[in-house]
Specification:
heterodimer; A: mainly alpha; 4% strand; B: mainly alpha; 77% helix
Chain lengths: 510, 77
Amino acid sequence: MGILKAISEAVKEKAKEEIIRYLKKVADENGSRPPHPRDRQSERPDRHAESRREERPYPPKERQERTDRNDRPDRNNDRYDRQDRQDQTRSDRRPDQFERPPHRDRLDHADRNDRQPERSDHRPPRTDRNDRYDAPPQEHRSWDRDREREKERQQQHHQPVAQRPAPQPEPRPDMRPPAPVEQKKAEPPVTPPPAPAPQPVIVKSQPVKEEWIAPIIEEPIEKIQVTVITQDIVIPHEFARTLQPLPLNEYTLYIKLLLYSFSIHKNYGYLGAGLKKSVGLDELAQDEFSRLLDRLCKRGLAVVEKISEYQSTYALYLPFDPETMKKVDEKKKDEPEAEPEKAPRAKEKEPARPEMQKQPDRQQQEGRPRGGKKEEPKKGKDTGRDAKKAKEPEKKQPPKGRGRPPVKERPAPAEEPVEEMIPGRTAIHLDDDGLMKAYRTFVSMEIDKAKMRVGRSNFDKIYMEAVKYIDKKHGFKVLSDQERFREYLTQYYISAFDIPDFEAWKKAKG
Amino acid sequence: MDIRIFMKSLNDIDIKLMLCKSNFQWKLLAEKYDEAERKIQEFYGAKIPNELTDALGRVRLQLVEKKGHLPPEDILV
């Protein structure tokens, strides 16, 4: 009996050594790869199992007896056999159809991920993970726990490597817990300078400095009507020398305006394309024309007055030569209401009026109206139709007031006093011709008002109807005759817009 | 043949009227129309063919309408 026991002990020891050797060999083959939990389980020195193994004899007595008794082993009831099978390595075990499938794939997959952390290190760090949910559920993964324990054991025994700090999950910026208030108070809030936002490039327009232009004429400009005795345009020598330093454009404009003023026998009028065309500067841009006129104003050679939103008048400095020119002015005593319309510069120079302004007063005192004037100031129609006029070359230089047919009962044209038709000035003490001119102005203004009242499109329709009416009533040839057409057109407008006729207007005026 | 000549002159006026942009051009066309009408009346006398009468009326109507579409001429004042 003692021999048998000794033999069994020896066999046991030998088997144990072989198993250990085999396990080491397998471990070496696997390299750094830790063994499978199952293998580990078998590899791990299980003290309880050992003690069980040590306690129980091998082969157990019952089995020996059973084998002796019956050669068929009762596997189902043989727990020792099962335990032995578990202790065997996988390579020793034969596949058993009654065993549960090992689920190697799932485990391998999980182990592969777990065992090769360096492989996952190549991946970019996740920034979108939620640590709360992404953390490995260690309490459910016993094999991981075992493996860690084993690692620790190995590190303690073999290589005391400096412990690597546990990788702290990088907190997400949005999940960062708020700093305590004390810390916030202690540390001044260091806010990094904000990145320079692309500021929209704003090109600041430099305020255009008004060019100061030295005036060459200090005298105030008075709106006058003149007649030239000799029919020659005379420019005083001194004034011509004064004009000489002017730039070409301004010089040209002034001379053209001067000649035009002589042609219309007055130094004022309405501003607009009609004027530009009349002075022969039709090709000049309106802006340039306005700029040049403005410069002339600064030089004291002209004055521009805005009489309404859309209408402006100008007055040109006219060198008056008493020998060759005569002033025709109907300045009234009750002019203070018209004076505010004058340019402020003219008002400033009021006390130092030259003889140019004194003469009209003298003429007023004489009360003698000058004859030979047929000039009529163009009223609102001019500015309203300047653009349209510009398209009509046939009306290039319409002599103002000449050849125009009367509206209804026009008195015979004769040497009659000329009325100053500046807007805002009332004309009283006029004879019939003067009244007629005033009536024409009145009609013109009424038509302008009606035009604004009915609107442009409606006014065009009315014009169309007027043309058809004139064609029907007066014949087609009237449409080609400009003067007659104008006359009939005015009559049509007077009827269409209920403008009082001359007699009614005269009575109303008193 | 004569009708064709007169009709062509009237049609020319009709076509040029479409390109007319100013009262000055309109006036030239109106003068052409007057000339054509005068010639037709001289040639046919009182027996103007209906075709020409219609054409004359049509061109005249178009001339009048064109005049109405053009910028209004200055009124008397």
